[in-house]
Amino acid sequence: xRRFLILLGGVILSSAALxxxxxxxxxxxxxxxxxxxxxxxxxxxxxxxxxxxxxxFATYLRGAPHGDADTLANLAIRGATTGDLIAAQLPDAIAxxxxxxxxxxxITVSIGGxxxxxxxxxxxxxxxxxxxSPTCQQLLFLAMHGVATNIPVILGSLQAALADDPGAExxxxxxxYNAFGGTGHPLEAVIAQVMRGPxxxxxxxxxxxxxxxxxxxxxxxxxxxxxxxxGYPLFEGRTLxxxxxxxxxxxxxxxxxxxxLAKAHRRAMD
Length: 270
Fold this sequence. Notes:
Elements: H1 2-18, E1 29-36, H2 38-41, H3 48-51, H4 53-61, E2 71-74, H5 82-98, E3 102-110, H6 113-117, H7 126-129, H8 134-162, E4 170-175, H9 188-196, H10 213-223, E5 227-230, H11 232-235, H12 239-242, H13 255-269
Helix pairs in contact: 1-8, 4-13, 5-8, 8-10
């Protein structure tokens, strides 16, 4: 976590040095770029390209009052981790931002959940057998450390690229929910602490050594000038209603869940 703070400080300084005012050109095609994992892709929606939170939010953004982004570029890949986003999506996003014929207006980022979900995907995963085991605890530490290392790179790189883009921009970072919340699953309480930390809250004033996943994502977002979309409390007590968890091990939202996430993004923009 100390390394996380050092990296974060470097990103903030780099972004501040590169940032500068730029005049918007009305002739440019305005973009909304979506980055992330299966949530940004729309997995679980009846029609992902229409009912996921990204296309819903894209519809809202069209027109000057709400972001003035007339074209959606959804680069999200199902199953992506923070490392995957850096390798496969970030270069394409930076290329879109650098395109002189476009003006990027809004970027959304939904990432980090798979860095942890990968530890409980298969029946033989050590964290499914015993989450308190030394092996699982080490894997959790490494996964958190990976997110803490990668998310400043992602957001800092985007902010640096946007510094040379015309007009004003907004980056929104989604804090994922506890897919086990309210299900009675044995992992429910454990996942809550992993997601929100021991205090079970999104809080940037506590010791970073006790940060949960959402603290890492959210505090980095705020420190780099991004907006936070806190999806966690919106699903508490409603997981079976808003996701497919009642149908088996499927953590993805249904259409109602994606509507909730889209509304949260609209509120963050407003």
